[in-house]
Amino acid sequence: MKIWAKTMTSVGALAVMLLLAMGSEDPPARLMDQTNKSKVPIQYGVVQEGMRIVAEDGSFELKGGQRFTSPFQSDLWGYGCNNFSNKDVLTKANDVLLCGAKKVKVYYGNNPEPLYGVLALNQAIQAAHGPASRSYMIKIAEDKIQHARAGNTSVSFEYMNWTESKRWSHTYRQQTNEKTWYSWILWVSAYPM
Fold it and tell me: Which positions carry the signal peptide feature in this UniProt record (predicted)?
């Protein structure tokens, strides 16, 4: 019986030591995102002189050289709407329609033939800063218009700046990174999209 008692005591002591050893390990350090991504509407904008943007459904018209109140807001920050970059933005016109973008016709210069397009007027977030996070300045370079009239798809956009803020879980040290995301995007083509 003495061997049984000694064995049980040894097993119990070993179990206690293992439990203490397991509990003494610090959890792994994590970098936690603390960026304030609350949505902030961008309410105003202006379209470059000589260009007019008309909603395909007739719900709004943005005239060149005139300030406008934003007729809608897209959300390119949300899940599924922020999974593209400059490398593939040209192919994402149909995808952003699911994120609140609108089909439009774009009239440029004195040409009565419209270009067909998709316009996304993105919201800002609390962490965004700079002019493009407060208003839209919609413009398309002449070479992009010519490229679209030749039967291709062209895309123009403007970035807003925002500050990503993260904190380490074990030291509480802050880490910030300056980033950019789209304020507005306009795809144009000679053919309906």
Answer: 1-21
- The whole-angstrom separation of Cα 176 and Cα 118 is 33
- Angle formed at CA 57 by CA 53 and CA 63, multiple of 5 degrees: 20
Tokens at 113, concatenated:
């033939």
> In this structure, what are the phi and psi dihedrals at residue 122, rounded to the nearest 5 degrees?
-75, 155
Q: Which domain holds residue 179?
A: 31-189
What is each CA distance from 19 to 13, 22, 102, 150, in whole angstroms? 10, 5, 60, 72
- Tokens, residue 154: 């062209």
| Helix, strand, coil abundance in the chain, percent, nearest 5 | 20, 40, 40
5 pLDDT more than 80: no
In a domain, 170, yes or no: yes
Please count the structural domains in the chain.
1
